[in-house]
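Continuing the series of single-chain predictions for the mutant panel. This is the parent chain; the variants come on the following pages.
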Amino acid sequence: MPDNEPMSWADIAAQIRGIGEPGQSDVQTTTRTPFRIVVATDFSQAATTLSVLKAYAAMFPADAPVELVLAVPHEPTDEDVSCAQVLLEGLDVDTAIAPVRVESFAEAAGKSAHAAVVSNGDLQVLVMELGAAFTAMHRLATVVADADLLAREPEPVDVPNAALQRRFVSFCEVTSAADPAAGVFAESL
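Parent structure:
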């Protein structure tokens, strides 16, 4: 796909479904284990996922050894893939981005995570997690853009990630209803 054309639905579907499969060498040209950025979502709220996805799209071109994992609490369904496609299409990017995957919490916790955003329903904690994830992504973007830095960066090791698994147990999307004061204020208007 030329760099100046918008992504088609077929391109988006290929990024989500075919990442890492044999014959996808044009998507990821390195043999390194990819650095994984994990975002827990059930697609009921788009703000967190879309925020990370926008930053990811701006930082990582298609050949970067990085992948964004949208982790869901169950085995991924066609509906989950459709939700991811809608978010990707909403980016309105004109170049291909690094791979995006939809995985279950169990699958995501079975591999490394360079950074993770797992909302527990607390807005303040979510803001801190987003800040930490964006910082890690910025540093990683610098590393993968420089062959010398990348060569010195330890390769991710895909082993079960108990810390991420524990975080998935407390997953809960942040909503305005999570703050009782916000509900009182909204009702008084």
